[in-house]
């Protein structure tokens, strides 16, 4: 049997250029609301069927706050809209929800601050264009509420795609291991901030990173726990944080907590061997349900308090429910039947550095239903940019950084040479996706208004301020 020779860079570039025939770069400008477009509120209601009913009004309340808040929670809506959009046929591991607020800083295993994508709930293989359009449209939505000229807002969106295109060009020329090792660390962030904002801006950035580095399990322990009969326990703050002991009768709660040892052992098996040994140094102490995010509100999310050497040596883990990706109906089902594993495997592929406790678990909940979860540290230097406070220049620089970061994630698991050849050296795709993003931002505003109308009519219940 003769082995097939791997495609050469020239072959891969030719494939990318040939893809322009099936999907011309100018075709990415198109967005016209289809006559038979699914009702966006109906799509959100369908998602709500698998969520905690008491928490769904909080989700609607958070999404109603602004068009950008709606966009954050409407990944399922946009997935439906992108399903029939032009695509080059070049697939990568998608983030699935690559909007501006899903990028940020966090700690690497080496205890360096790195900047990367940080949400992979919807990750799945699919067309690279879907992630780029999701990101670019989020920039358009974020800019649309600002008192900036239309031309300036468009230029900011174009900077997003330019950042992706130019980074992909560099990655296409880089050695394979260099692509894998590539990351945006604190020193690179400082260099970019100094170039854009000078010493004053750098000082603000450094204060922010210093604050982020204090956001870890020790900080969570101080903020989220108190003493009960001398033992550390997670403090109640309903409906946002509800300890297990308040959700079940005392005897049942004790039995469920006792069973956590078996569940932790199952989760432990998904970790590398060195991390298993580290986890073994901690014992389970308490757990609580915690409301998280915007789009994730209503899914089951637990926080686990683990204690190490003594009662002042905490580790907080977050166990977050993983449901099938919103992309699955359009991009195809995951090869992993365990949805928590789908999230973890996608994250490990795309991130330059991942949480040392990243793993997955399948368990039967307190309602008797089997669900999948992924596990990570609750806080580990996690920080995100305040998009609303950015100047136009600041948002443009940040959007370009996010575009470049997305390119690096795609290059780790996709064909950077083919994607770069498709994009080309000019700005054809930049202009086209900027057109799409402007039109889709207007669509998002209509969808946001549809949610407000649904709340006013009583179709959906919303709880604001929570």
Description:
This protein is an alpha+beta fold. It has two domains: 9-99 and 108-206 and 385-457, no CATH class; 217-377, no CATH class. The chain has 18 helices and 13 strands. It has helices at residues 9-22, 40-48, 56-63, 67-73, 75-82, 128-144, 150-173, 176-181, 186-213, 217-224, 250-258, 260-268, 273-279, 328-331, 339-350, 392-413, 416-423, 428-457; strands spanning 91-94, 103-107, 113-117, 124-127, 184-185, 225-228, 231-234, 241-243, 283-290, 301-307, 314-321, 359-364, 370-377. The strands form four sheets. A six-stranded antiparallel sheet has the order 8-9-10-11-13-12, with helices on both faces. Strands 2-3-5 form a three-stranded antiparallel sheet. Strands 1-4 form a two-stranded antiparallel sheet. The model has no long low-confidence stretch (mean pLDDT 93).
Features:
466 residues, alpha+beta, six-stranded antiparallel β-sheet, three-stranded antiparallel β-sheet, 18 helices
Short description:
The protein is α+β, with helices and mostly antiparallel strands. It contains 18 helices and 13 strands.
């Amino acid at each position: 049997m003769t082995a097939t020779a791997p495609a050469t860079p020239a072959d891969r570039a030719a494939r990318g250029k040939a893809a322009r025939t099936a999907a011309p770069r100018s075709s990415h400008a198109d967005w016209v609301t289809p006559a038979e477009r699914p009702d966006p509120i109906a799509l959100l209601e369908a998602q709500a069927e698998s969520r905690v009913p008491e928490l769904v009004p909080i989700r609607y309340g958070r999404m109603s706050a602004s068009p950008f808040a709606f966009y954050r929670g409407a990944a399922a809506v946009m997935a439906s809209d992108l399903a029939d959009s032009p695509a080059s046929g070049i697939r990568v591991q998608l983030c699935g929800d690559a909007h501006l607020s899903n990028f940020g800083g966090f700690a690497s295993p080496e205890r360096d601050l790195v900047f990367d994508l940080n949400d992979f709930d919807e990750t799945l293989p699919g067309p690279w264009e879907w992630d780029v359009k999701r990101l670019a449209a989020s920039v358009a939505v974020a800019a649309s509420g600002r008192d900036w000229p239309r031309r300036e807002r468009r230029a900011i969106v174009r900077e997003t795609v330019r950042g992706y295109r130019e980074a992909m060009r560099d990655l296409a020329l880089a050695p394979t291991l260099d692509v894998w090792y590539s990351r945006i660390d604190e020193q690179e962030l400082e260099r970019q901030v100094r170039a854009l904002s000078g010493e004053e801006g750098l000082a603000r950035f450094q204060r922010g990173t210093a604050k982020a580095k204090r956001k870890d399990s020790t900080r969570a322990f101080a903020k989220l726990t108190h003493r009960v009969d001398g033992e550390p326990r997670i403090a109640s703050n309903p409906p946002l944080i509800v300890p297990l002991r308040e959700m079940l009768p005392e005897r049942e709660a004790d039995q469920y907590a006792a069973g956590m040892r078996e569940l932790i052992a199952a989760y432990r098996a998904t970790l590398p061997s060195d991390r298993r040994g580290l986890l073994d140094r901690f014992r389970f102490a308490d757990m609580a349900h915690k409301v998280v995010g915007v789009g994730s509100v209503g899914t089951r999310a637990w926080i686990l308090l683990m204690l190490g050497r003594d009662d002042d040596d905490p580790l907080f883990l977050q166990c977050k429910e993983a449901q099938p990706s919103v992309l699955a109906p359009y991009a195809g089902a995951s090869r992993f039947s365990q949805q928590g594993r789908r999230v973890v495997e996608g994250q490990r592929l795309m991130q330059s550095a991942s949480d040392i406790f990243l793993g997955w678990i399948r368990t039967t909940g307190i309602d008797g239903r089997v669900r999948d979860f992924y596990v990570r540290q609750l806080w580990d230097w996690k920080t995100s940019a305040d998009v609303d406070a950015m100047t136009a220049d600041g948002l443009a620089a940040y959007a370009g950084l996010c575009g470049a970061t997305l390119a690096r994630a795609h290059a780790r698991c996709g064909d950077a040479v083919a994607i770069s050849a498709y994009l080309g050296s000019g700005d054809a795709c930049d202009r086209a996706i900027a057109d799409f993003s402007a039109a889709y931002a207007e669509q998002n505003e209509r969808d946001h208004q549809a949610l407000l109308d649904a709340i006013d009519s009583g179709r959906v219940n919303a709880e604001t301020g929570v």
